[in-house]
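Q: Here's a chain of 333 amino acids. Please give me its 3D structure as tokens.
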Amino acid sequence: MLSGRGYCFCSMKGVTLIAICGQLLITTPTVFKWRKRYLEASTDGLSDLPRSGQPLKLNAEKIKELLPLTTHRVPKEATHWSVRLMAKYARVTTWQVRQIWAASDLKPHRLKTFKISNDPHFAEKVIDVVGLYLSPPDNAMVLSVDEKTQIQALDRTQPMLQLRPGQIKRRTHDYKRHGTASLYAAFDIITGEVMDRITQRHRTKEFLDFLRQIDKNTPAELDLHVILDNSSTHKTAAIKAWLEKHPRFKLHFTPTSASWLNAVEGWFSQLERRALYRGVFTSVTDLKVAIRQFITAHNEHSAKPFKWTKTAAAIISSVHMATLSVMKNKPMN
């Protein structure tokens, strides 16, 4: 079959080059190309050239071969499969590898970490803590409490290169250490506000001082439900003795290896990303000022009620399924 433009060009005898370009709305190189093809092969040269066509179809046998290779083996020269490595081993194209992986939702380049709690009281602790999130008791405050320890006051060895059009902000990879500080925080799940105490150390004494601060700065008529982890400083004899004299404090411990259940951890992540990671601190004093500025701004402008949506039953079921999966894949001795 003759190409449309080639056919039109062939039928326009005695017409000038400029006229052909104007009538067919094409460029002079196009006219020269079709004229050359006509002179070399007559009308046969005006037919469309063979095209590559669509990619080869995938057959069931190749798919059955590639899927077990992806999930049960690793390449000799790497810890995981890439598209090019799989194409090499399976003797297929990279396009075919991508199609099979996409259809099977396989992502060998990605890796997630997990840790399953071995707390024998995991279920009851989850039910207790999640119950406070979903149905906070009346006439009470629910506080998520934890400490962020050993926050480093890091200074860079050279001045920062500031952001400007065409250039991202840059800093040296090496740094100077100017000491550390620890932050105690109590996150109010009803208001989203944070109460803080910055210390040099994180011992029982510092935690007890923070409890006294909470006691002093909250309405005396309210019970205080405090959610916290299983740090040894939270369970010493001194802490237990103080709690006996202050019965409005009721401690609720998260399961071991389940810090994600403590609401204040999400706020700590915001602090790290927004105030600490890119900060430059020439002293611990500078670090403390930056932390307090972030907390003040958060309480004044960003604080909002904490919303927990997943039920205790759903969490327990997910952990149970994860445990079964780990046991299933655990190698036999």
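Q: Can you summarize the key feature?
A: The beta strands are 140-156, 175-188, 194-199, 223-228, 249-253.
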